Amino acid sequence: xxxxxxxxxxxxxxxxKTSITTLPAERIAISxxxxxxxxxxxxxxxSHPASDVSAMDGYAVRSEDVxxxxxxxxxxxxxxxxxxxxxxxxxxxxIRIFTGAVMPKGADCIILQEDTIKQNSHxxxxxxxxxxxxxxxxxxDFKAGDVLIPAGKQLTARDIALLASAGIDEVLTxxxxxxxIVNSGDELVEIGITPAHxxxxxxxxxxxxxxxxxxxxxxxxxxxxxxxxxxxEHLLHANGAFDxxxxxxxxxxxxxxxxxxxxxxxxxxxxxxxxIAMRPGKPLIFADWDGVPLLGLPGNPVSTxxxxxxxxxxxxxxLQGRHLQHDICSARLATPLPENDKREDYIxxxxxxxxxxxxxxxxxxxxDSAMLSFFAKAGGLIIRPPFAKxxxxxxxxxxxxxxxxx
Amino acid sequence: xxxxxxxxxxxxxxxxKTSITTLPAERIAISxxxxxxxxxxxxxxxSHPASDVSAMDGYAVRSEDVxxxxxxxxxxxxxxxxxxxxxxxxxxxxIRIFTGAVMPKGADCIILQEDTIKQNSHxxxxxxxxxxxxxxxxxxDFKAGDVLIPAGKQLTARDIALLASAGIDEVLTxxxxxxxIVNSGDELVEIGITPAHxxxxxxxxxxxxxxxxxxxxxxxxxxxxxxxxxxxEHLLHANGAFDxxxxxxxxxxxxxxxxxxxxxxxxxxxxxxxxIAMRPGKPLIFADWDGVPLLGLPGNPVSTxxxxxxxxxxxxxxLQGRHLQHDICSARLATPLPENDKREDYIxxxxxxxxxxxxxxxxxxxxDSAMLSFFAKAGGLIIRPPFAKxxxxxxxxxxxxxxxxx
Lengths: 406, 406
What we know:
Two copies of one chain form a homodimer. With 406 residues, chain A is α/β, with parallel strands linked by helices. Chain A has four domains: 9-24 and 175-320, 3-Layer(aba) Sandwich (Molybdenum Cofactor Biosythetic Enzyme, Chain A); 35-45 and 143-173, Molybdopterin biosynthesis moea protein, domain 2; 53-136, Molybdopterin biosynthesis moea protein, domain 3 (Molybdopterin biosynthesis moeA protein, domain 3, Beta Complex); 327-401, MoeA, C-terminal, domain IV (Beta-clip), CATH 2.40.340. The first copy, chain A, contains seven helices and 26 strands. The first copy, chain A, has helices at 9-19, 157-165, 204-214, 231-237, 258-265, 301-320, 372-377; strands at 26-29, 42-43, 53-54, 58-61, 71-79, 93-97, 109-112, 116-119, 122-125, 135-136, 147-149, 170-173, 178-184, 188-189, 200-201, 218-225, 244-248, 269-274, 278-279, 285-289, 292-297, 327-333, 344-353, 359-363, 380-384, 396-401. In chain A, strands 7-4-6-5-9-8 form a six-stranded mixed beta sheet, with no helix packed on it. The first copy, chain A, has a six-stranded mixed beta sheet with strand order 16-13-17-21-20-18, sandwiched between helices. Chain A has a five-stranded mixed beta barrel with strand order 22-24-23-25-26. In chain A, strand 20 and strand 21 form a beta hairpin. In chain A, helix 1 packs parallel to helix 6 (301-320). At the A-B interface, helix 2, strand 15, helix 3 and helix 7 of A face helix 2, strand 15, helix 3 and helix 7 of B.
């Protein structure tokens, strides 16, 4: 029997995006909203400033009273920030005013403190500024109802201040999907335990938790699973609700790969696809587990990481309803690449910029998917389509650059 | 009396860096170390792989037994991931092996599962791979003692996996300084409260908390302080230990500016400098409060934000012992700029890239330091040195680009 052709990477991504349903937006306190994405436009509830205010320390006067200088005005009241004057300025009068304080009625001009001489309850004015100068007009920054922040914006610290100053205390944001991490493999010991002969430290759990956080999800690491039939169901059953389940290992064809078996045998589970035309990442599984999407990643840490970048990130973006845009750019090869076979190849590469600002890609000599040291140093992945021809030094390749924190 | 010349920005930065003492490095669990900076090199405690392991599912054999094909070998044991075989392979024998499992003694060659036919306890081998192929050699990724991560690296998710796989469970990191935030102003109401006439929502607290987090600090927002003499001492006294105190407002010369007064009057406080040759940010204070450095920022939110970028970030970096490098680049002006006066000017600007990849800076029309809406939209700050000459459209300026999350 001819082997079924492996699913192309783009078809795998399409299947993930099509079958995952976007979660509802989440309303959160503005103090928690830093770096979250807005799910809607946000309009000002208040104008800023709410009233005309002084931009300086000085005196609020009528401009017609300071045409002929020097002149002498009577100080009748004070307007401080948060404590507006109650009186209005009338002919021959001034009101002491401080930065940020509301302009008193009747006044249209600020005289700077340093341009006055004070004697008891009067000031002598030597120099006057133009009417309106040093006055921040009501709504000068924004008016109630103005759109301050568009939908889909990742909120900065400055955006938080802008929203707060507009009277907004909650923001409608794209959700942070809850993602369960399950690592499988009898050889795994947890971080902090010295592995016995033949054992390995579980490095995938901590790596995926950090990646999922960087992708905008909330990671819940459920620890390691033994290579035993039925173990996945047992673990997930005991651990509440998730929006996405990510497993590692147990996805290959060996007798000790139980994740795929558990998915195929569980009555409420449906395997959407298994095995794709990709290197690393061929054993990738995408399934539905009692209504929750499940991505089964290969267990070699480089395969796990590359599949997280492509598929876990895409799944989280779809759960959020966000358009995912990879940072893809052209680079020139520093070493040749052989022609590619039928699997789309994602080649770990160093990236550097040469004198004329051209990006140079230097692929790792060994592309073994268990080798973490180069993966940690790499700047991105060269994408080699199936059957791509051999390339020489200086020829152009497309590179996905790793996102911040990845 | 001639006014004392204002302190230049570079002298203010030097004073901050000189007087702040770097905190000790912090040892933290690797699960908390994502995005933290390493304080030292980190060497592998274990080799990876620890032993020679198989990269595939198949059979471990002696290469000399598979020279003449087809051949027939007896399967005497199994080596699975985490469960090494106890037997050694002798002439005419094979051991069943799975991906990631330890190579049995005596074997130097992996026969792929798909190149064999199994009958009871024997396999017939139709095709053999070269000795060593599909075997991951001990220490191939890294050896115990290898330097895996340099000092001063911000840890990615991949770095976390690399360290975990090397048997490291704690990382020596640059500390996250504890930074107190104190906002002052009788006009301020907290987020969620509707301001009365003349009042404002305190937007600086939430903005600074987000910025301090983005700069690598741990922000503790102590809320707002009334414009009352002695209030600062009262609040700080009640709130434990900090590595840095950041105040906003109360730094100007008005009668209601009590922060500077409290600092000048408190017996254990020493004002290092007050007022600098900068726009916005002139009223900046740098003081020592019972041994803790204190930055007094102006209260207008744009001034607060710009001073946070320059001075709070520099103070946090010095507390960490980290070299701070701003993202400074050249841009061409889209609109002219007038000549500058004696204060170094930090002009809010939009940044865009034109067709020929040149960065274009479009300064905000109004540079009012109370206007948050443009500040939130801006991409950076044009730096205008004191007495810089007027510049026309297309002329070159230097721009600090805002960091992620700012």
